[in-house]
Amino acid sequence: MTVSQRPLRSVLYIPGSKPRALEKARSLPADAIIFDLEDAVAPDEKSTARSTLAQALSDGGYGARMKIVRINDLGTEWGAEDARAVLSMGADAVLLPKVNGPAELDALAEITGDLPLWAMMETPAGMLRAAEIAAHPLSQGMVMGTNDLAKDMGTRFRADRMPLMTGLGLCLLAAKAQGLAIIDGVYNAFRDADGLAAECAQGRDMGFDGKTLIHPAQLDVANAAFSPSEEEVDLARRQIAAYDEALTNGQAVAVVDGRIVENLHVATARETLAKMDAIAALNAG
User: Fold this and answer.
1) Percent of all residues in the chain with a pLDDT value above 70, rounded to a whole number
2) Is 105 in the same domain as 236?
3) 41, 77, 93, 227: which sits with the fewest CB atoms below 10 Å from its CB?
4) pLDDT tier at 284 (50, 70, 90 boundaries)?
């Protein structure tokens, strides 16, 4: 299954230094886990976190969840050692923070070889070079770092995230142009389920594949928001049936609920049903 086909509705950050959190993550309904060696790990725990995470991934038990390891920036004293360690962890991908351009992915690839690369998109420079970053031959996904981006831009908090829209849009366009996965930034108020649901709905409307999360309490909201609804599944099935009937009758266009259905709508409908099948398979795994 390619990254564009697998569910990535909920992408949960887990500190690589916390054995209890690493154990709990094995039973959580997350589509993917970012095992964090960067922000969630104190400087004096970096080395221990590396070995703790390596042991947890070696022990396994994470099922079909995608396993992504976020390392420290290669410009830090820990980054290169993190990158070397990831090679033997059995991770699905490595996530590099604060990517400003493709040269940083080149530097990482010199260490990690052909391991798929994900980029944290969290700086103004990164926004302006998003297309180049997405086009890197080993790029597989992008993760929005909206907290850092807001800090660097000096924005005020707004529930509609209007100050961040240009950056979010640039990264979305870059990722979609290259067929990459792209995951929306975190929602900080983890006890505010209504606020999270609203931001997830906004992200889904924009085209994000899922949401990065900082607490297990956020999982159900994100999974629901980024799953096709019953109404969307029903419409998809009816669109496909109507279009197939139209083709049988020598027509290239059908009508469903008073709206035109062409081949592009059917392609979207088939993607909706395929996503539901992939979610069902993940839940059964």
Assistant:
1) 99
2) no
3) 77
4) confident
**Number of domains observed in the structure of the chain:** 2
Instruction: For residue 259, report the phi and psi dihedrals to the nearest 5 degrees.
Output: -120, 145
Same domain, 240 and 214: no
pLDDT of residue 5: 79
* pLDDT tens-place string over residues 205-238: 999 999 999 999 999 999 999 999 999 999 999 9
In a domain, 160, yes or no: yes
Q: What span, in angstroms and rounded, lies between the C-alpha atoms of 211 and 186?
A: 7
Verify that 105 and 35 share a domain, yes or no. Answer: yes
Query: Is residue 110 classed exposed, middle or buried when 0-12, 13-18 and 19+ CB atoms within 10 A define those classes?
Result: exposed
- Which residues are within 8 A (CB) of 129 and not within 5 positions of it... i.e. 6 or more apart? 100, 101, 102
Structural domain of 68? 10-225
Tokens matching residue 131: 């297309």
The answer to the question of residue 3 being in a domain is no
Are both 182 and 273 inside the same structural domain?
no
Distance CA 249, CA 21 (A): 58
pTM over the 0.85 mark: yes
Which one-letter DSSP state was computed for residue 155? P
What are the tokens at 84?
A: 């070397």
What is the arithmetic mean of pLDDT over 45-74? 97
- Assess whether 85 and 136 both reside in one domain: yes
> Residues 152-168: what's their mean pLDDT?
97
Q: Is residue 4 assigned to a domain?
A: no
283: Cβ contacts below 8 Å, ≥ 6 apart? 29
Residues 22 and 14 sit within 8 Å (Cβ to Cβ):
yes
- Region 141-161: mean pLDDT is 97
On whether residue 5 sits in a domain, the answer given is no
